[in-house]
């Protein structure tokens, strides 16, 4: 009888024939509301924080794990550098590989954030223009609602190198994927006009502002049919808020932050590169000792710095494992709750949602009463600051110019030009959304509109 068998019998007992009865292991106890509150006790409890989308959130247990990695480095940096850093990063990459269903861990690099990932892909495109693989005037396509910083990156790297940048206009409010697909196809046609080639399509998985889930798999398939050379999916919000299967989506490059909806500390993202793609030789813009050894290794040492946010993925998995259904369960509950809260707000304010529920993830857009007269991006920012300062509500606001023919009526409620983007994640409670509802009701009842708010 080996030691393991003895231990098992001792635990489970056995009958006269030595047959051991299999006792089911007790299911791990799901995390309680009090434990969740403890994990996020470092949040400012006076604020209704319904903007997880911008910066994400990190629980105390993961912050403790991060601190422990930092101390390991500080205790004996040389030993850490030679023996622990790379195995630790490999472990995190291997976990990410499983979650996103990549074919190989070498397809997964860890980088600082989605902005860095975009720079890596776009730098690669700019070299293709500079070295003659792409012809000057060849097109790069991006969504009109691409993230502002990524748009600037496209201009900085690609337009400057001779690429012709074309935006896909997207309707908002949006009511179906077909509307998006139609506009995308039209823009690809435009991109291919005059014998031009479309070299790169940059497609968001979840747009930031306004927030809409984009049918990336279908758009990627269309790109393949239409001969687009490369597809880069900017999925900064994806992991933890939508299902991610990179093989199924089929893009060349795909990035998601891990610090938004996946509970990593700021900041870490993965950049997936399909190894069968012709252009898998990306480089990190910060060149160091590992240059030429593949992006995952290049990214694993970009000089002396703190790598702890990249090393805590196993601890994040532990945290997520305390929730019923793991990350899938969290994702599903966040979606259901954000839709419920969005509908509650729209009904209370007499407005509507910016997209059908199936086109949103853990964030949803809700129209603000037209009488608040949000008439510019500056107004949207003024109103956001006012909600923060006067009502302690943190929520981003989007300005949508009126469509042709629509006029902003002075006291009317029927022309919606401002939308809140509400988020839901594990630490949120219904009271957060009630506070927003009541704050807006107060403003309306007091006759406030954006013209009356100071712009400090
Ligand atoms: C679609 C999209 N892309 C890129 C980013 C940039 O993310 P980060 O600031 O973490 O680099 C964001 C941030 O919200 C985003 O929403």
What would you give as the CATH superfamily of the largest domain?
Type I PLP-dependent aspartate aminotransferase-like (Major domain)
Distance between the termini: 77 Å
CATH fold field value of the largest domain:
Aspartate Aminotransferase, domain 2
Query: What profile does the largest beta sheet have?
Result: 7 strands, mixed
Number of strands: 12
Strand order of the largest sheet: 2-8-7-6-5-3-4
In the CATH hierarchy, the architecture of the largest domain is: 3-Layer(aba) Sandwich
Uncertain segments are: 1-19
**What count of domains describes the coordinates?**
2
What is the CATH first-level class name of the largest domain?
Alpha Beta
The helix fraction, in percent, is 40-55%
Q: What Rg is obtained from the alpha carbons, in whole angstroms? A: 25 Å
Q: How is the quaternary structure best described? A: single chain
Count of alpha and pi helical runs? 16
Summarize the structure.
By secondary structure, the protein is α/β, with parallel strands linked by helices. The chain has helices spanning 3-12, 33-39, 52-55, 60-75, 77-100, 114-130, 148-159, 177-191, 216-225, 246-249, 295-300, 308-311, 313-321, 326-349, 377-391, 430-445, and strands at residues 48-49, 108-111, 139-143, 164-168, 198-204, 230-234, 253-257, 269-273, 363-367, 393-394, 397-399, 418-423.
């Amino acid at each position: 009888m080996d030691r393991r068998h003895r231990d098992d019998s001792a635990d489970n007992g056995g009958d006269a024939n030595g047959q051991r009865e299999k006792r089911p292991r007790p299911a791990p106890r799901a995390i309680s509301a009090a434990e969740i509150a403890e994990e996020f006790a470092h949040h400012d409890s006076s604020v209704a924080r319904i903007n997880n989308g911008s910066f994400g959130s990190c629980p105390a247990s993961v912050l403790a794990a991060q601190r422990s990695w930092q101390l390991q480095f500080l205790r004996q940096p040389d030993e850490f550098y030679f023996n622990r850093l790379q195995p630790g990063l490999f472990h995190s990459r291997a976990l990410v590989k499983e979650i996103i269903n990549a074919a190989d861990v070498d397809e997964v690099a860890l980088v600082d954030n989605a902005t860095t990932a975009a720079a890596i892909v776009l730098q690669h495109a700019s070299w293709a223009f500079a070295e003659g693989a792409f012809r000057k005037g060849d097109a790069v396509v991006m969504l009109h609602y691409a993230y502002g910083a990524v748009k600037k990156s496209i201009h900085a790297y690609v337009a400057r190198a001779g690429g012709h940048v074309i935006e896909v206009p997207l309707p908002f409010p949006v009511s179906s994927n077909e509307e998006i697909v139609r506009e995308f196809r039209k823009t690809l046609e435009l991109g291919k006009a005059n014998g031009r080639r479309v070299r790169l399509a940059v497609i968001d998985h979840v747009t930031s502002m306004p927030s809409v889930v984009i049918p990336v798999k279908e758009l990627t398939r269309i790109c393949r049919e239409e001969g687009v050379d490369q597809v880069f999916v900017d999925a900064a919000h994806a992991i933890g808020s939508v299902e991610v299967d990179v093989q199924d989506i089929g893009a060349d490059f795909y990035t998601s932050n891990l610090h938004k909806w996946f509970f990593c500390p700021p900041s870490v993202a993965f950049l997936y590169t399909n190894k069968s793609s012709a252009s898998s030789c990306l480089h990190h813009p910060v060149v160091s000792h590992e240059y030429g050894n593949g992006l995952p290794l290049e990214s694993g040492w970009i000089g002396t710095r703190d790598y702890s946010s990249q090393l805590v993925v196993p601890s994040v998995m532990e945290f997520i494992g305390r929730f019923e259904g793991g990350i899938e369960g969290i994702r599903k509950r966040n979606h259901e709750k954000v839709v419920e809260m969005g509908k509650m707000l729209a009904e209370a304010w007499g407005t509507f949602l910016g997209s059908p529920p199936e086109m949103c993830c853990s964030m949803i857009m809700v129209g603000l009463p037209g009488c608040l007269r949000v008439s510019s991006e500056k107004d949207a920012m003024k109103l956001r600051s006012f909600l923060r300062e006067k009502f302690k509500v943190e929520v981003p606001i989007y300005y949508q110019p009126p469509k042709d023919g629509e006029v902003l009526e002075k006291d009317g409620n029927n022309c919606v030009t401002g939308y809140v983007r509400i988020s839901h994640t594990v630490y949120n409670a219904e009271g957060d959304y009630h506070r927003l509802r009541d704050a807006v009701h107060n403003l309306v009842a007091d006759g406030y509109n954006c013209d009356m708010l100071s712009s400090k």
